[in-house]
Design a protein that fits this description.
By secondary structure, this protein is an all-alpha fold. It has five helices and no strands.
Length: 125
Amino acid sequence: MMSNTLFFAGSIIILVWGIAHIVPIKSVVNGFGQISEDNKRIITMEWIAEGVTLCFIGLLALLTAIYGDPASFTSTIVYRASGGVLIAMAVLTGLTGARTPIIPIRICPIIKSVVAALFLVGSML
């Protein structure tokens, strides 16, 4: 089914993007220069939280695609809710971090929006 292809693609993309948030945390925090230990902890916490959230969304959608019935109401809710959260995160990132010159952060709203579109379109097929 075409919808499952969209769900698998979106799941893998956002799962990998979530992992990509978690892996470089030390260099991200160091990029802020001389800041307090409390600020370092807060930045670390936020980067891990976003990475874990993205991984959870990807894993939830992936498990739903593997084990769920793509035509079921529950599957539809999972994909649409995941797409909605990704759109909200894309808007937040677009209004904050994407206004910086850091390329990975600038493309983050695009990736989140594309995956949201994959989930939403797939849930309508």
